[in-house]
Design brief:
globular; 2 domains; single chain; Rossmann fold; UDP-galactose 4-epimerase, domain 1; about 325 residues; binds serine; six-stranded parallel sheet; about 15% strand; alpha/beta
Length: about 325
């Protein structure tokens, strides 16, 4: 990994991943890829090259890959689960037609490709407790359909053409730099913003709904470590379960209240998000990632909560 293109560099993951990789390989070109209307700003713009890189525009992607001699592509372009339910055709276009553009360019130019999958790739028939690495995946959301197709296409390009595709199934990601946009797990980010601002939080997910969650520093570490892993040890590729914590809104509320007493929450359940959440695992088994590339998270709910509150106090107050 030396010359890297991060597609979706201004999104929730991309804004932090681009900076992490730039710090890791200062001698390389780490290109912040963006689409019109979501241009990089501030440190992201100043600390390295940026280029318009719309997954739906193959010619534009190819130009960037050639110009910067890209060897690794992080493909983070996606509509999250709740938005994808409103715009299913657009979600398919971005997530699958866009992925095909990337995989073809990778095949012709020898690039490795990381395209994240998700807890959203599972469905109601999936075992919800200790969800195995290899198990039934019959999602009912468009987001989930695109993630299963992403896993299959990525493995297809590896087996058929030898394209070095690798990936992880991200849990809901909790971060304090860039907000997620329209996911089912967004509540677990927004709750911290409300708590720090001293506002009551209105929770769209019902009490008792458990989902895998992860703090962004662990997610970034996973995205880097999987691409740097020794390929001879990889039995799986697209895509690895990774896990660090699982909670429901009540557990999260009580944890935040330990640090911000008096914080209040009430429920206004969103039926679209709730149906999606009910179909997702409660807690994934990540033993294959641990065995094949030494995956190990650093943050649990307590340490994440301390760090989130501290970071958001500095940012918001
Ligand atoms: N965080 C995503 C969502 O909620 C799942 O990968 O859509």
């Amino acid at each position: 990994m030396k010359n890297v293109l991060v597609i979706g560099s201004t999104g929730q993951i991309g804004s932090e991943l681009t900076m992490k990789i730039r710090n890791m390989i200062p001698e390389g070109n780490v290109v912040a890829g963006y689409i019109k209307g979501a241009e990089p700003k501030g440190i992201l713009l100043e600390s390295g090259p940026a280029a318009e890189a719309d997954v739906c525009n193959g010619e534009q992607l190819l130009e960037v890959v050639k110009k910067y001699k890209i060897d690794t592509i992080y493909n983070l372009a996606a509509l999250l689960s709740a938005v994808a339910e409103k715009k299913p055709q657009l979600a398919w276009h971005i997530q699958i037609d866009g992925l095909m553009n990337i995989l073809e360019i990778a095949r012709e130019n020898g690039c490795a490709v990381f395209t994240p999958s998700s807890i959203g790739s599972f469905g109601p028939e999936t075992p919800h407790k200790d969800t195995p690495q290899d198990t039934i995946q019959r999602p009912r959301s468009m987001y989930g359909c695109t993630k299963v197709a992403t896993e299959l296409l990525s493995d297809y390009y590896f087996h058929k053409y030898g394209v070095d595709t690798r990936s992880v199934r991200f849990p809901g990601l909790i971060s304090n730099v860039t907000l997620p946009g329209g996911g089912t797990t967004d509540y677990a980010v927004e709750i911290y913003y409300s708590a720090v601002k001293g506002e009551e939080f209105v929770c769209p997910i019902a009490a008792g709904t458990f989902m895998d969650m992860m703090y962004m520093p662990d997610a970034l570490k996973a995205a880097v470590d999987i691409m740097n892993a020794d390929p001879s040890r990889l039995v799986h590729r697209n895509s690895f379960n990774i896990a660090s914590m699982s909670f429901d809104p009540e557990i999260l509320l009580h944890k935040i209240q330990e640090h911000i007493p008096g914080f209040k929450m009430r429920y206004e359940v969103d039926p679209v998000r709730q149906a999606i959440a009910d179909s997702w695992p409660d807690k994934m088994d990540d033993s294959c990632a641990r065995a094949e590339w030494d995956w190990k998270p650093s943050f649990d709910l307590e340490s994440m909560t301390v760090d989130m509150i501290d970071a958001l106090r500095k940012k918001l107050l």
